[in-house]
Specification:
With about 900 residues, this protein is α+β, with helices and mostly antiparallel strands. It contains 15 helices and 46 strands. A hairpin with a 2-residue loop joins strand 31 (about 685-690) and strand 32 (about 695-700). It is globular. The termini are far apart. The model is unreliable at about 155-165 (pLDDT under 50).
């Protein structure tokens, strides 16, 4: 009979920042790495150290110890330091599909630079695991997964029931994604610290191993037992080899091996039983009591999520597509700048960072990283859009006109009421004193002519004159000194309807000999307080709620746009409503209505409502925090003192849009509370559909029998949908990652702001910044669809394109090789959600990536297919059966060149 093997893997789960600021953790990392390098020199039997699946650890170390680079390279080459496969350990759900992909791609590139990477999708402490992980790992050429959350191991009698989709009879299992990709996975059933601090003393070792071996054998499917020798920020156990020799002496029937994941997984894969179980889709602890899914981190410090979304859109949907269109297949593409920006952004993406569940110092530093990454993206985009504009022919515009180019960088058609600012005239400082030039421009402003907007063929384009302005400006030429000036700017508004994906359109502002006739069409009736176009009729009630009639389907949806405020006595990880259950609704007050715009392009109506909100929780909460009382046992109420919260919401209905857009703003001066916006659907449905990572995930509206938490928060990317057999409702958002489906009326509740005063987890860490005091704005949308798949996915694509405005750039009159109106590529399908258009890493061609929004086969119609091949996330060949057919839930990456 062969011995059972005990694989002991030394590691330290390294949160770069969490309950201390980054540099505090960083300095401890230096000590850990110093100890490791010294230990390798002294202890030849020490197999290796697992660097937590993230290559950034080596970058962080060498910032302080550059002189030890050669040692690091040597130990990685020898396999003593086990690196990768990721750049950082990200949070799955709160970053975009493309951010998840770049973490894999950059991690792979860095791992290759250092040596061989660990062939393991490593998610030890991720707050839930995304359903597409099996397919994503396959596309990153990773064969295994290891994770700590989301599955309930049953052990004991080694049985699971067919309906327990989130349970496994073993700590090893097959994990299957929605596209049917499978990956062999290991659950840290006894956590990733089950072999931490192994005793050398025989008496203590006997007690330790009796328990640890029994715990591991309870769930293991093979005779290969995994012991993780480490935990969060754990120093290396320097005497682990000695401790294993003691264990070997005490337990001769076992073989104790100081090892690594590669050897352990190889042994497991050779001996897995035929009855190995399977888990499906996303793993978010659905079968627990619901208190510790940590899904409420989606609403902690919402300003982080909003900034993260801004930077993702800047890099993914503006800078990269513009650079690809401008530098198509050339060496001018700014690979290094974009990689630098991505790395800066990814440093904000670990679970304790983007989740908003760290101390204040951590999140203050994150805001700087967001700003730096965004500024790089804006620099790249500005340079690329000017380059692209110089290639587009504007020679047909009349002399004296001011050409400008509109570019849709989205991967889907776009309808938008677009505002564009055009420089009409400038006065250089080189030609006069600044104040004189300022006055000259003010005079020109008073003498502005009548205007017209024309296309390249001279056709007039309907527009609305918005404003004019005089201010200082400057140019920074690439080959000479800066040029300061005063300029006169004119702002106009245009209607853009169904502008194709990755397309551009050239227009010009020109003086007109006669005033343009004004279209007197209006979309808001002030007498009846009704917004209306060809698709929607929206009645504004006196309490600020909306009654909406969807003309496409003939269905009516009442009591929309209701704001709800409740007490929150929880922490950054978990929402807990105050014991008194005090709830305040915006419908308890009267709304003030103000018309901001009402013309032939559309209408904007502002609602202003004042809610009287408790100023904070009562005094008991501070005691419960200081005493580290678990939130499930807290009894604090809300304060009796009420203060006003004035909520301002601008509702936009455009001429040619079949959706409503909202922008809600308020100055939060209250603590310990949560604000949500509610959309009552009254639809009979047992499930909802939400935008997740490379997936439109289907989730039940009702919880399991084991669920004790009164709430059921969920993650979303850009939208959530509820539908029945006649159609449904889609609520889109910008950086609002938490929603809940309320059982009564299947109301969609989107969290706008959640305010708490402590980090939570293993002690008391005060976080006054997490109370989110100050001015906030939130953007979201509402759309309705019929029962057809095309109508439904159209609303999904709308929610995505809402996040990225059509780009505009002013140019001059010039010849160009590109047509005045054209598209970089053609792409026609509602079911294919584009996540990336970029140049290939080796500069040989371009990359177009996206995924199937549905669980049905989809047709891809694009002019790139004749030149394209399919590749994986690493941009290596990855053949598929048919280039124009997308399988259900498939992620597809095309590589092409024209």
């Amino acid at each position: 009979m062969s011995k059972k093997k005990v694989f002991v893997i030394s590691h330290s789960h390294w949160d770069r920042e969490w309950y201390m600021a980054y540099e505090q953790h960083h300095m401890r990392l230096i000590k850990l790495m110093d100890d490791l390098l010294d230990l390798f020199n002294k202890e030849s039997e020490f197999n290796s150290f697992h660097l937590d699946g993230q290559t950034i650890i080596l970058d962080d170390y060498l910032k302080v110890r550059p002189e030890r680079r050669a040692e690091v390279e040597k130990r990685v080459a020898e396999g003593k330091l086990r690196v990768g496969p990721f750049y950082i350990l990200q949070d799955d759900f709160l970053i975009s599909p493309e951010a998840n992909t770049r973490d894999m791609l950059i991690g792979h590139q860095d791992s290759k630079k250092w040596g061989n990477q660990v062939n393991l999708g490593y998610f030890p402490d991720t707050f839930g695991n995304m359903g597409q992980t099996p397919q994503m790992l396959k596309l990153a050429d990773l064969k295994y997964a290891a994770f700590g959350r989301g599955v309930k191991p049953t052990g004991l009698n080694n049985q699971v029931f067919d309906n327990e989709k989130y349970s496994s009879q073993y700590s090893e299992m097959w994990w299957q994604g929605p596209d049917n990709s499978k990956v062999l996975s290991v659950l840290f059933a006894n956590w990733y610290s089950n072999g931490n601090e192994i005793p050398v003393d025989k008496t203590e070792a006997k007690k330790f191993w009796d328990q640890k071996l029994a715990d591991a054998e309870k769930y293991a499917s093979t005779d290969n037992l995994l012991m993780m020798n480490g935990v969060d920020h754990q120093p290396v156990q320097k005497n682990v080899i000695e401790a294993l020799k003691v264990a070997q002496e005490l337990y001769p029937d076992y073989e104790f091996i100081h090892s690594n994941f590669d050897d352990y997984l190889k042994a497991v894969s050779k001996s897995i039983p035929k009855d190995l179980g399977k888990v499906d889709g996303e793993l978010t602890s659905q079968e627990t009591d619901g208190w510790y899914t940590l899904a409420n981190t989606a609403s902690s410090r919402v300003y982080l999520k909003q900034d993260n979304t801004k930077v993702e859109r800047e890099l993914e949907n503006i800078a990269e597509p513009l650079a690809t269109m401008a530098y198509n297949g050339t060496k001018d593409y700014p690979h290094d700048q974009l990689r630098y920006a991505w790395k800066m952004l990814l440093q904000n993406n670990p679970h304790d960072s983007i989740c908003g569940c760290s101390v204040d110092d951590v999140h203050r530093e994150m805001m700087t990283r967001f700003a730096k990454s965004r500024e790089v993206g804006e620099f790249v985009a500005k340079d690329a859009i000017k380059t692209l504009a110089s290639q587009i022919n504007t020679s047909t515009f009349p002399e004296g006109s001011k050409p400008f180019i509109l570019i849709n960088t989205n991967g889907h058609e776009k309808t938008e009421m677009k505002t564009v600012e055009i420089e009409w005239k400038r006065a250089l400082f080189a030609d006069g004193k600044p104040d004189e030039q300022y006055e000259a421009m003010k005079k020109a402003q008073r003498e502005l002519p009548d205007f017209k907007v024309i296309d390249a063929n001279g056709n007039k384009i309907p527009f609305e004159m918005v404003s004019s302005d005089v201010r200082f400006g400057y140019d920074l030429p690439k080959n000479k000194f800066r040029i300061p000036y005063m300029a006169l700017y004119v702002t106009v508004q245009l209607d853009l309807t169904d502008m194709p994906a990755f397309s551009w359109k050239s227009l010009a502002l020109a003086s007109s000999e006669e005033s343009e006739k004004t279209d007197t069409t209006k979309f808001y009736d002030e007498n009846t307080q009704v917004l209306e176009n060809n698709w929607l009729q929206v009645s504004i009630n006196s309490n600020g709620s909306l009654n909406i009639f969807d003309k496409k389907t003939g269905r009516k949806f009442d009591d929309q746009l209701v704001f709800e405020d409740t007490g929150d006595i929880g922490n950054e990880y978990i929402y807990r409503q105050s014991a008194d259950k005090k709830t305040v609704l915006s419908t308890d007050s009267t709304a003030e209505i103000k018309v901001l715009q009402n013309n032939f392009l559309g209408a904007k109506v502002q609602l202003r409502q004042t809610m009287m909100i408790p100023k904070s929780a009562d005094e008991r909460l501070e005691y419960e925090r200081q005493a580290v009382i678990d939130i499930t046992n807290r009894k604090a109420n809300r304060s009796d003192k009420l203060v006003p919260l004035t909520i301002t919401t601008v509702i936009t209905l455009s001429k040619n849009a079949d959706q409503l857009k909202f922008k809600t703003s308020f100055n939060n001066q209250m603590k310990d509370h949560r604000v949500r916006v509610l959309f009552k659907t009254n639809l009979k449905s047992d499930y909802n559909l939400a935008d997740s990572i490379f997936e439109t995930v289907k989730r039940p509206n009702h919880v399991s029998d084991t669920w004790k938490n009164p709430t059921n928060p969920q993650h979303q990317q850009t939208f959530v949908n509820i539908c029945d057999d006649k159609g449904g409702v889609t609520v889109g958002n910008f950086g609002l990652n938490e929603y809940e489906i309320l059982p009564k009326d299947n109301t969609i509740a989107v969290t706008l702001l959640r305010c708490v005063g402590e980090m939570g987890d293993w002690g008391y860490f005060g976080t006054p910044d997490a109370q989110c005091l100050g001015q906030f704005s939130f953007e979201y949308s509402l759309a309705f669809h019929s029962s057809t798949v095309a109508s439904q996915t159209h609303t999904y694509q709308q929610a995505k394109t809402n996040q990225v405005s059509v780009q505009s750039v002013q140019t001059d009159i010039h010849e160009g090789k590109k047509k005045s109106e054209d598209a970089f590529l053609t792409l026609q399908t509602d079911n294919f959600a584009v996540t990336s258009l970029k140049q290939a890493e080796n500069s040989d061609g371009n990359i177009l990536r996206g995924y199937n929004l549905t669980n049905d086969e989809a047709q891809i119609n694009s002019n790139i297919l004749k030149q394209a091949k399919t590749v994986n996330f690493l941009e290596e060949d990855y053949p598929v059966d048919k280039l124009d057919i997308l399988n259900p839930a498939e992620i597809r990456t095309y590589k092409f060149s024209f």
